[in-house]
Amino acid sequence: MKRSEAPALDVRLMNAAAIVLFVVFVLACALALTRWVATHQVFAFQGITVIGDVSHCNAATVRAHVVSRVKGTFFSMDLGSTRDAFEAIPWVRKAVVHRDFPNHLRVKLQEHQVVAYWGDESEQRLLNSYGEVFDANAGEVEQYGLPRLNGPKNQSALVLAAYRLIEPQFSAFNLTIESLDLSVQGSWRIALTGGALIEAGRGDSQELAKRTQAFLQTLSRVVARYSRPLGALESADLRHENGYAIRLRGVNTIATAPSPTP
User: Fold this and answer.
1) Count of alpha carbons within 13 Å of 60, Cβ hemisphere only?
2) What residue ranges in the chain does DSSP mark as E strands?
3) Residue 261 pLDDT > 90, yes or no?
4) For a tag site, which of 72, 126, 192, 220 has the least CB within 10 Å?
């Protein structure tokens, strides 16, 4: 009985070449199909659905800032750059972007919840509830009567935390904080509606709150001694170790020298 002979070398080479050509053909077809799918107009985005916080972000605002920056199709769009385009819209803090097959985009927005102005009065920057500074049209929040907070760069969250600690203390005495300022040297200054200015000294937010609480608990008795309301406060200096100094509107504590006898 004869043994079967192995295929000749040239036959094996032809078979291998055929397999390689077939694989190349399949890959080329797959690549062509991928390119066709990625660029076909049926997958080009036809609409954007925006959900979430949209108090300040109407359709016209989104269209003006985003539509020209939405590139690609359902398969080729870069979601990272698209998210960045939405987060560049004023008032938008965070955007979550999803594709909806075959040609729609769904975006969930989180807006900044404004709690204060930030910086000096010449600036138009705002502060959100996370203590983050952002830029938007400050004219949209004029009716809210927001306080103005100020401090060194990257200290906005600390200043907001301090404001949240002391604001209820002053509100309990029907006093409204108009501004809270932290200097580069670490000193706090509080301005009240009505013009009163309080130099509150140095320290962290807890130390500030402790100092202002002690001040307010005795202030009502002090002004009552001069038959004045709390609103008569013009200034206070809490930087003294065992007390404070105040100035009251309509009260003069400086003794005048008697007129010389003629």
Assistant:
1) 1
2) 47-52, 92-100, 104-111, 114-118, 125-128, 133-135, 148-150, 177-182, 187-192, 197-202, 233-237, 245-248
3) no
4) 220
**Spacing of C-alpha 231 from chain mean position:** 34
Question: What's the pLDDT band for 126 if we cut at 50, 70, 90?
Answer: very high
CATH number for the domain formed by residue range(s) 114-248: 3.40.50.11690
pLDDT, position 172 = 95
Q: How does pLDDT run across 64-85, given as a tens digit for each residue?
A: 778 777 777 776 778 888 899 8
Residue 88: CA count within 13 A, CB half-sphere: 13
Alpha carbon distance 195, 248 (integer Å):
12
Written as six digits, the tokens of 51 are: 């959900």
Q: Tell me: pLDDT of 245 over 70.
A: yes
Give the C-alpha separation, 210 to 165, whole Å: 10
Reported residue count of the chain is: 262
User: Would you say 177 and 170 are in contact if contact means Cβ atoms under 8 Å apart?
Assistant: yes
Domain boundaries, the chain: 42-111, 114-248
pLDDT at 256 over 60: no
pLDDT tens for each residue of 40-53 = 555 567 778 888 88
What pLDDT is attached to residue 48? 81
Token pair belonging to 182 = 């932290």
Using omega within 30 degrees of 0 as the cis cutoff, is the peptide bond preceding 168 cis? no
pLDDT (average), residues 119-145: 91
Q: What's phi and psi for 208, nearest 5 deg?
A: -60, -45
Give the tokens for residue 183: 């200097």
